[in-house]
Design goal:
CATH topology of the largest domain: Rossmann fold
Distance between the termini: 31 Å
Domain Xaa-Pro dipeptidyl-peptidase C-terminal: 396-665
CATH superfamily of the largest domain: Alpha/Beta hydrolase fold, catalytic domain
Region (Disordered): 1-34
Pfam families: Peptidase_S15, PepX_C
GO molecular function, one term: dipeptidyl-peptidase activity
Protein name: CocE/NonD family hydrolase
Helix content: 10-25%
Strand content: 25-35%
Largest sheet: 11 strands, mixed
Length: 672
Amino acid sequence: MTYRLDQPGRATAAPAPARRRLGAPHFGSLPLGDPTGGADAIRWREQVDGKPLYPRVSIRRDVVLTMTDGVRLRATVVRPANRFGQTVLTPYPAVININPYNRVAVDALDHTLHAPVLGKALRTASASIDAAGTGLEGLTQLTKTLSGGVFDVFGINRNLVRSGYTQVIVDVRGTGASQGKWQILGEREQQDSVEIIDWVAEQDWCDGTVGLAGWSYSAINSLQAADKRPAALKAVFAVEGCDDIVRDIYITGGMPSAFIPTWLSAVNLLKWVPNPSTPVLDILRGDTLRWARDRIKSPATEIGSLLWGFLTARDDRIFDDPYFDERDPQVDRIEVPTFTVGAWHDLFGRSATGIYERLRMEPGRKQMLVGDGYHLDVGSGYGGKSSPPRLDVLERAWFDRWLKGHRNGVEYYGPVTMLQQGGSWTSGQSFPRPGVRTQRLYLHNSSSGSAEHAVHDGTLSREPVDHLTSIHVRADIRGAMSRDMTQVTAGAAMALGPTFTVDARYQERGGLSFSTEPVDEPTTISGPMNLRLNVATTAHEAIWAVTVNDVAPDGTSTVLTNGALSASNRALDKSKSTYAADGSLLSAHHYLSHKRKLPVPADEPVRIDVDLVPTDAILDTGHRLRVDVYAASFPRYLTVVPDLIKARGRRQRLVLDPRHPSYLTFCAGGQF
């Protein structure tokens, strides 16, 4: 079904031919189910890559915005300019990016990508060098992001500005050249975002219409600002944002991630780098002194509390606390058109589909684009013959439609565009895919003959075991060479080879594997998953990590999705969990709070539900579905010291019990 959007915020169902009758005609045509965007996308790309409305841009890097509490934020304002470099006075829509990574880094990126000869050469080389099938495949997957458009969404987008926009890039308070204390997406920082929007809308170079764009942190604060519903905000383009920071990355399954201290340290270091664009002026007007005073007051924001919490478990930020409730965007409150981009193995993997699902608006006004990658390689390969348009092309089309009112057909793109793992790019109307149904496969102790390298080679069966069996597994550090490692490093480890991306057999040597028989025909898996396990440990805490894999006939085992849970965090919030029509648990939501932790009795089996990141995949003929169960996956999942003490010397075991079976619940087409 398509939608007719003749008035903002209203839509009526319409047959496809009605699209030709919409007010002003839009360019080309977009056949349903075309992930490339068809003729419409060709026009979008031509508009970005062709002759711009204005030949140059004018950049001011010394702009000061004073917040209502007196804190001075620093910004860069980029406006269209004529061929003599003179700033165009015509007011245009403004696109705002607010990020904590210091405008010094943004400027360096801008100078590199727009340097004469060098910039174009880098983008061309990025698009053309492809080492697929070799040991350098992961490296070229990373470098292809340069040509995929994400850095234009993140930093200064000169093509966008030359087409008739103003861009405003702001250092988050307490970072870059902005004053104040960094709040890490906190309440005052969210108020800053709204005040920035209001300030921009009132400037004589803005026509009163504002969009928000960003990648990662700036995508999250774009969603935060949108849920406040500021009047001037008309659209959001969010690349790899997040709506549940706790479960995605901070304390997945109740266990901290190695990514957080690494990331916090990097931002804290960057915030000590002053912006060199106006050093003398900053000293004369007192900004340098105020900046230095604020940095000294908070030299390493949250590092101490994070360390204290990790060592003692006495800090609220080690649990799902109101600290995080304040920071999670209230996606269901967002009313403006929102385009969200994600990846199946992103740091915020579950948010890729979760944000789209929670947006309460008709498809077309909301769009979802999900690739089969990580955090740092988003947009890699985009713009190819069978791929979605580049991210900068989609951003321009999105803002042209919703900020300028151009009937360019972007609302008919998607609305759900996904790179199916094991398959190709597809575009459709919904996630999960139509035609899948809830299925259950039991963990069985009989050998599949496909994972003899693992600690245990079992099967996934339609029937549970008929007798009691215990299978022991010990913690090891093989997770340091796995897709878990690549995910926790935001994709950086993919440059180290296929062991870190598409072949889990090394990690499986330390785990328990359970595999189906080879499928007789291509079989789709789409949607959330839950793994129920009956487990025990000799200690008073246990760590369980799980992956679900696609196993090729040659034995290559590729992780499709993952999850983890510490046994003490097994308490389930049923009101926030997802169930199938038959009552089967599809997505477990654990409390992960200090007061809801449960005791772990030594050597007594307990039932846990490991929630797995929703995914979309297809098993080709002859492939198997596999569940791998591990006693740990370091450093993807860390254990706070008090829990580590409780778990010391532990021997964990999976208890296959016909009275309390262990099984995978998922949605698939076809029968396993």
